[in-house]
Specification:
With 160 residues, this protein is α+β, with helices and mostly antiparallel strands. It has one domain. It is built from three helices and ten strands. The chain is globular, with a radius of gyration of 15 Å. The relative contact order is 0.15. The model has no long low-confidence stretch (mean pLDDT 88). This is Competence protein.
């Protein structure tokens, strides 16, 4: 594993509109790799702890965001999270309680490759960066569609 920047304080500030993925890591003291447009950062906090801090930054909490998304969208599992505005949302690849759950942020990407046997998919971004995620193509497409519906619904609520 190639190590990026190690962050000790204010880990959640690295989670913003330029974030691509939150990835659990199981090496040393670090629990999460924060993959952004400008590189990777490592945190001692879990993915859920970091998402909670981001939600608090926007005067809410993770549980409230999930509850609201479920209320409007009727998704009981793998619910996407609206973090602040239309350009800042994410979805889980598995149950958020699963230790290997990754969080994919709503940056534009395409599916570059898919390994059916291992249920791993490679995402390709406009700058040619690639990220391997532990989810099938079907799961990623379904979760992305849910996230798009959530953003659409949130925008409509903001206008009314």
């Amino acid at each position: 594993m190639e190590w990026g920047h190690i962050v000790e304080h204010c880990d959640s500030v690295w989670i913003n509109e330029k974030t691509r993925v939150l990835k659990p890591v199981f090496t040393g003291d670090y629990q999460t790799e924060i993959v952004t447009e400008s590189g990777s950062y490592f945190s001692k906090k879990s993915c859920l702890e970091l998402l909670q801090l981001v939600c608090l930054r926007y005067f809410s909490d993770y549980e409230g965001r999930i509850k609201a998304a479920r209320h409007y969208l009727k998704y009981d599992r793998k619910t996407p999270v609206y973090l602040g505005d239309a350009n800042f949302s994410c979805f889980p690849t598995r149950s958020p309680k699963h230790p290997e759950c990754m969080w994919i942020f709503n940056q534009e990407y395409s599916i570059y490759a898919y390994d059916l046997a291992n249920k791993k998919t490679v995402l390709l971004y406009a700058d040619a960066a690639t990220i391997e995620v532990n989810a099938s193509r079907h799961t990623l497409e379904k979760q992305l569609n849910r996230t798009i519906m959530m953003v659409y619904r949130a925008r409509n609520l903001e206008r009314s």
